[in-house]
Amino acid sequence: MKLKTSLFSGLCGLFLFGGLSACMTGLTDKKVSGYALMGGSVYTMDDQNTIAQALVMKGNKIVYVGNRESAKKFLSDDIKIIKTKGQMILPGFIDTHSHVISAFPNADDLRFKGDDNIEDWLEQLRRYVRQYPDKKIIHGFGFSALAFGEAGPHKSLLDEIESKRAVILADNGGHTLWVNSLTLALAGITLQTLAETPETTAFYHRDSQGKLTGWLRGSAAIFHLFSKLPKALTESEALDTEAYYARVKKLWAYMNSLGLTSVFDAHMNGQEAKFGTILTALDRAGKLPFRIVGTHPVFDPKNLDTAIERLQALQQNHQSKRLRFGAIKLALDGTIESRTAGLLTPYAHDSTNKGDEKFSREKLMQFVIKADAAGVDLYMHSIGDRTTRNALDAIAAARRINNSIGTTRHTLSHLHLVDKADLPRFAQLDVMAQTTPIWHSKVPGYADALGMRADRLFSFNAIVKTGARVIFGSDYPVAGLAPLVPVFNIETGHTRREIGLPASAVLLPKNERLSVQQLIKGYTRDAAAWKIKSAHLKWVNWQMSLY
User: Fold this and answer.
1) What is the overall mean pLDDT for the chain?
2) Dihedral of CA 226/231/236/240: which sign?
3) Which of 436, 417, 443 has the alpha carbon at shortest distance from 475?
4) Vertex 425, ends 420 and 427: CA angle to 5°?
5) Burial of 159 (0-12, 13-18, 19+ CB in 10 A)
6) pLDDT of residue 132
């Protein structure tokens, strides 16, 4: 816990678009024209990793960073001096993978604790069903599919608790669903009807007798289910701007208190236009406390043909000072927990299963070349080594055909398992590698799913050493609030142990530990390079804001 304690005790993140962070005092005084931070350690994140002792800011511009003596020539009577001796001054953190915007559409949905056990989740469901007798549908989030082993969760456990209302529970990764029998019946889903849609059939799990279990193992099945359910059950609660703001303002304030100044939202549950309207209104009212970059998500290859056009519509209709839609999000595979992450070799104990491949190599390559030629940035969910190779092959083709290095910024996200041969390709192809470092610890069930491959997960130090940019984010609300905290991610990324448990087992290999400096850089400078593209990356000179 030494790292976490030292960082918290002295952390003051710079909010370059609106003054300085709330951990300093007197920063709302309208009588002053600027501020001078004197003393402490100012992490500049420049190429030499310079640590300065003073920073002077006039208006919203940083005019000097360096030693205290030279800073004095920039001082005047109307500049407020703030003594920061013993404190750590950092650029604002950028969360490069989150779902924070759509995390609270229905504030009273059931939320499980991912570290509980199966009986705990069932008991929480029992209490919830009794507490909300008038709800027409039971929605929940946060169970761990790994707890159920290869068989996965079964609808019979839910039927015993609630059989008269649909029950739809998402796992803590948001990539599998656990539903009761009534949900399948309301959607008209049987083995016979699934035969009509072979592209989704494989993702409705079956037991040893071939019967449906109520476990949906991937987005193909999830979107198929929701397309078949009655509309009255799938429409989310209507929210106006103020009602939405009332729900999220405490969370947003908490994020600001952590030093977060910008957020990349990896998708808004397919409601990007709805949330775009709300966020634009909040920004114009001065209520958006950080910059947000959104995406247009594509989970089904049938939607590739209109993806660029839809992103452009979002960019045209929903853009403000602190909001823009900057990329197309492609979900290339599933998760290790559900055995749907795309692997080069089969999962342990199942020689027939190499996981999910939502887009064929051919379709993926065609689309990446097309989007890259149009100047569109791509952000791709890729957990397995096969999926990652396919994505890198597609980007390589696009780079070669379009000569696009330096003009588009493509990112692969999560990257639990990357083949050794593909590690140097991130730097070679100018591809950003994104991860959530708090996951870089031993996870029960991964060894059972992957065998010996579980000892070579998260090879981000190797990627950094090739010269590639590695960036970090929370994937909130996956695994609750803890991943939102940058210093928690920094601790686990550095130790490869569970947060706050220095005696816990180290995730192998040990040489994949990231340095604290690398982790800070991935939350600040390199994240800014992704967010605004390298041509405009002037903030490292401390002369302007992150945009």
Assistant:
1) 87
2) positive
3) 436
4) 125
5) middle
6) 95
**Nearest-angstrom CA–CA distance, 466 and 459:** 12
Query: Which pair of structure tokens corresponds to residue 90?
Result: 């950092």
Average pLDDT (334-344) is 93
**Which residues are CB-contacts of 36 (< 8 A; sequence separation ≥ 6)?**
54, 55, 56, 57, 71, 74, 75, 79, 80, 81, 82
Site of tokens 């027409």: 136
Tell me how crowded residue 25 is: count the other CB atoms within 10 A of its CB.
10
Residue 59 pLDDT level (bands cut at 50, 70, 90): confident
Bridge partners for 275 per DSSP? none
Fold observed for domain 110-234: Diaminopimelate Epimerase; Chain A, domain 1 (3.10.310)
Q: Cα(74)–Cα(159) distance, rounded to whole angstroms?
A: 70
**Inter-residue contact 399 to 379 (CB < 8 Å):** no
- Helix/strand/coil for 31: coil
CA–CA dist 211, 233 (Å, integer): 25
CA atoms within 13 A of residue 182's CA, in its CB half-sphere: 16
Q: What is the spatial distance between Cα 233 and Cα 188, in angstroms, rounded to a whole number?
A: 14
User: What pLDDT, on a 0 to 100 scale, did the predictor assign at position 32?
Assistant: 54
SS3 46: coil
Higher pLDDT, 296 or 358: 296
Cβ atoms within 10 Å of 87's Cβ, excluding its own: 19
Spatial distance between the Cα atoms of 89 and 91, rounded to a whole number of angstroms? 7
Cis peptide preceding 477, ω within 30 of 0: yes
Q: Where are the beta strands (DSSP E) in 180-286?
A: 204-206, 212-216, 260-265
Task: Report domain extents, the chain.
Answer: 2-91, 110-234
CA dihedral angle for residue 408, residue 414, residue 415, residue 416, rounded to 10 degrees: 180
Instruction: Dig out the tokens for 208 from the structure.
Output: 């040893």
d(CA 377, CA 326): 7
CA–CA dist 31, 35 (Å, integer):
11
Q: Which residues pair with 147 in a beta bridge?
A: none
In CATH terms, the superfamily for domain 2-91 is Urease, subunit C, domain 1 (2.30.40.10)
pLDDT per position as a tens digit, 203-261: 899 999 999 999 999 877 888 898 899 987 776 666 789 999 998 999 999 999 899 99
Comparing CA positions, the residue from 394, 524, 407, 417 lying closest to residue 463 is 417
User: For residues 413 and 379, is the Cβ–Cβ distance under 8 A?
Assistant: yes
- Structure token digits, residue 502: 């220095």
Q: What is d(CA 321, CA 316) in angstroms, rounded to the nearest whole number?
A: 13
Q: Which residue has the tokens 């952390």?
A: 11
Rounded distance, CA 21 to CA 373, Å? 40
Please say whether the beta carbons of 191 and 209 come within 8 A: no
Residue with token string 């950094």: 464
pTM (2 d.p.)? 0.86
